[in-house]
Amino acid sequence: MTTEQKPLVLVVDDEPQMMRFVRLALSSRGYQVIEATNANEGIQQVTAYTPDVVLLDLGLPDKDGIEVVKMLREWSRLPIIVISARGQEESKVAALEEGADDYITKPFGASELVARIRVALRHAALMRDTTTASIEIGREITVDLVKRVVTKRGEEVHLTKTEYKLLVALVKHAGMVMTHRQLLLEVWGPGHSDQVQYLRVYMTQLRHKLEADAAQPKHLLTELGVGYRLKLDG
Questions:
Q1: Residue 157 DSSP label
Q2: Which residue spans within the chain are E strands per DSSP?
Q3: Is residue 3 part of a domain?
Q4: What region holds the Response regulatory domain (predicted)?
Q5: What is the pLDDT of residues 114-163, one digit of tens each?
Q6: CATH of residue 55
Q7: For 45-68, what is each residue's pLDDT tens digit?
Q8: Do 71 and 165 sit in the same domain of this protein?
Q9: Of 101, 134, 195, 216, which alpha carbon lies 20 to 30 A from 68's?
Q10: Do 31 and 124 lie in a common domain?
């Protein structure tokens, strides 16, 4: 996608009413939209058009959406946002751990949808830009990935090795949901993939060091029953 092109969004959903809502919401905000009503057609559209973002329903008539995520992740890193009426934590976790970048539960508003797409596009651009040296979190926090230094209001914040690894894992997926298991594997390794209490303790420590109010965090956000999300703005 060049700066002159409008972002191309592929919507894979078999509900006509939802498809119409998403099409109107996105096209009125400057996005190009292509559509598919089943999994096989969706995969074909990905290969034919290489969209910038895929919005994927889980309840498709020919294949479960989680299986589609798994298939796409075998050869593509394009952003995938799951949209589904399944609100169960298990479905969210399964989709994210197979490689989805985000998850929106139906019904949702146009503003929320567009905000999630913008975050997904920004994250994809960040992943392509290998020269990125530092990330700003809000107006006060900077993470210098080259110097491995974190500052708050210009003063260095002293983090432990594990705290820093946890923060960097979230920074690399800024705006995206990371499940408990994904974070435990990345920070602590395979032997700790079910020890969620480790994660909670270190997340609390990070919040006390970085957030203005650790009890009401604005950046290190909890996704109940699923994991955590780092919000850069705000």
A1: P
A2: 8-12, 32-36, 53-57, 80-84, 102-105, 134-137, 141-144, 149-152, 155-156, 177-179, 220-223, 227-230
A3: no
A4: 8-121
A5: 999 999 998 888 777 655 678 999 999 999 988 999 999 999 999 999 99
A6: 3.40.50.2300
A7: 999 999 999 999 998 999 999 999
A8: no
A9: 195
A10: yes
Of 65, 96, 128, the position where a domain reaches its end is: 128
Q: Is 20 helix (H, G, I), strand (E, B) or coil?
A: helix
Cβ atoms of residues 36 and 45 within 8 Å: yes
How many residues does the structure list for the chain? 234
User: How many structural domains compose the chain?
Assistant: 2
3-state secondary structure of 51: coil
Say if 207 falls within a structural domain: yes
Contact 167, 141 (CB under 8 A): no
- With a CB cutoff of 8 Å and minimum separation 6, the contacts of 19 are 11, 13, 35, 37
